Amino acid sequence: MRQYATKRIGLFIPTVLLITIIVFVVMRLVPGDPALAILEGEGGGVYTQQDLANLRAELGTDRPIVVQYVDWIGGVIRGDFGDSIWFRSPVMIELNRRIPVTVELAVLSTILAILIAVPFGVLSAIKPDSLLDYGARSFTLVGIAIPQFFAAIILILFLVKAFGWLPPLGYATLWEDPLTNLQQMIFPALALAFYEMAFIARVTRSSMMEILREDYMRTARAKGLAEWIVVLRHGLKNALLPILTISGWQFGRLFGGTVIIETIFLIPGMGRILIESIFHRDFPMIQAIIVIIGLFIVTINLLVDLLYGWLDPRIRYS
Amino acid sequence: MSMLRSADTMQAEAPLKLRSKPSPPAALFHFARRHPLGALGGAILAAMILVAIFAPFLAPHDPQATSVAQQYAPPGGERILGGDHLGRDVLSRLIYGARISLSVGLLSVGIGVTAGTLLGVFSAYAGGTVDLVVQRLVDALMGFPPIILALGLMAALGASMNNVVIALVVILLPGTTRVIRSQTLSIKELDYVMAARSIDASPARIVLRHILPNVAATYIVLSTITLGFAIVVEASLSFLGVGIPPDVPTWGGMLTLGASRYVNTAPWLAIFPGIAITLVVFAINLLGDSLRDILDPKLRGGI
Questions:
Q1: What angle do CA A70, B143, A147 make, to 5 degrees?
Q2: How many angstroms separate the CA atoms of A273 and A98, rounded?
Q3: What is the rounded distance in angstroms from the CA atom of residue A276 to the CA atom of residue A94?
Q4: Residue spans per domain, chain B
Q5: Rounded distance, CA A243 to CA B9, Å?
Q6: ipTM beyond 0.90?
Q7: Which residues of B touch A301 (CB under 8 A)?
Q8: Interval B121-135: pLDDT, tens
Q9: Average pLDDT in the A141-148 region?
Q10: Minimal CB count within 10 Å: which of A205, A235, B3, B141?
């Protein structure tokens, strides 16, 4: 295990470094001079060469790119991602409020997806080619094809027509008002969970089907255990590992989806501010959000891999 | 393989010609019988491509023509699928939108999967430091959720159709490279490559004659599977307002307005483009699944 963990963590560090380099370089692809863009955008084009030189020095764009990167990464290690052009304050002040919202949305969505999809996957595997199985499988096919934003819109439309529900304008945090917060988050989380649900139901079905054929299932039945104990304790328990692993790996995709869901449901999370920052051309903010999301994903993948390696020795030695 | 087949047909004597190579229509018929869902997907996709090609003849109205009288016109009137906030014909915009969705999707998949395949083969064949560097780069690129990476690129490059294609190519690259690389690694160890190497065939010849033909099936499957994904990401970018500029009729762009402001009063503005996207992605997935089962069953669940 130690060897596997060392190897896996050894791969983690260069990946993290490359992530920061990629984002930094991509953000320097912006055509033109950011200082010039700010002056022409705000000052209406009235500025002197001195103003331009001052602003360049202030933004640090007058130095070589390698020096800029080293300076920036030094800050990142200390948790300082620079100042937002739009908010005129360190980006982390704004992001500290936003990150928990997005994490809550993603976690809630994963929980919902597992709670809904696993029972359907199991039932579908126990009774293949039944009406329920066909229903679940059709849902899987559609669920994977339907774009997230369209799923969200259909959900809103349904809620509006059926319950007269409207997306809330305000937002209550989980700590201040848990009940209102959950009421606000449950539907966005459901819309976000659509794809994972389809995916998890599919994985549950196929891994349960495989396990149902195992010898130990027959043994469990032969010794007279009740059918539901056989299915749950001997079947599902063994199927759960791939399901949890895949949910972990899918977490990254979920983070991408939060951008769309937060925009539609007006949730003040990290994804929504990413879109706003693109419109404001607030590059320090965009850069910080993308790096944070990237780091988050590779860290989760690392943890999932380590957990998987720890639980299943076959992974370690392959 | 060919020896086996000829021995087999010699015993059966007569049906030698029938077995050797079916004509294209016969092959298509065989595919449709064995994989009805895949054939359905292929048929829907082919119909959509025809609609896109013949858009000027099929669209009942000019997709850009505004009309005060037809603002928010419900479906069923002169505007068959209704009118949008400027009174433009939703059906005509859907038909023209098929052009954008499909051409952006096909173009980016064509470039992205081809580049990823070449990079994957190169990385695996070169090995050593080259392989190590390419793989770390692939790992890093796969650390970003695809849509986030695309958003970062669009933020830096600016909203335009060319930049959407560039962003899509970049997000398709790492996954394709990884799949093709691992396949090349196993092909590299096969006897016929060893044999070629032992008679001193040049690396270029080995790659061109022995490796590329053997990853071709995977290439086709990857192209199909990623096409649906590319179309959804393009629609997502347009939906978020950072993709193709809003005056161009795109499915994602049509949904933006329909979704955010008029979902209560004029739901058809959101529903029809949403159905169009879902249908085309559904069709591509069905076709892709069948092609994968035929050409490359090992890829199941791989991407």
A1: 135
A2: 8
A3: 13
A4: 36-60+79-295
A5: 47
A6: no
A7: 143
A8: 999 988 889 999 999
A9: 84
A10: B3
Most B CBs within 10 Å, among A27, A138, A153, A245, to test the B interface: A153
Tokens of A110: 């994963």
Mean pLDDT on A59-86: 84
Interface A-B, measured as beta-carbon pairs within 8 A, has a size of 140
B19/A209 Cα distance (integer angstroms)? 36
Helix (H, G, I), strand (E, B) or coil at A83: strand
Q: What is the rounded CA–CA span in Å between residue B224 and residue B38? A: 12
Q: How far apart are CA B123 and CA B130, in angstroms?
A: 6
Measured distance CA(B296)–CA(B303) in Å, rounded: 12
The proportion of chain B whose per-residue pLDDT surpasses 90, expressed as a percent, equals 36
Q: Which residues fall within 8 angstroms of residue B65, CB to CB, at 6 or more apart?
A: B88, B89
The pLDDT of residue B171: 94
Q: Is A240 on the interface with B (CB under 8 A)?
A: no
Cα four-point dihedral sign B208, B213, B214, B220: positive
Name residues whose C-beta falls within 8 Å of residue B20's C-beta, 6 or more positions apart in sequence.
none
A residues 124-143 near B, CB within 8 Å?
A: 141-142
Whole-number pLDDT of residue B297: 62
| 8 A C-beta contact, residue A251 and residue A79 | no
**Entry pTM:** 0.85
Q: Which residue of chain A is at minimal alpha-carbon distance from B255? A: A150
User: What average pLDDT does range A119-143 have in this prediction?
Assistant: 85
**Minimal Cβ distance to A153: which of B136, B153, B259:** B259
**Which chain B residues have a beta carbon less than 8 Å from that of A19?**
140, 143-144
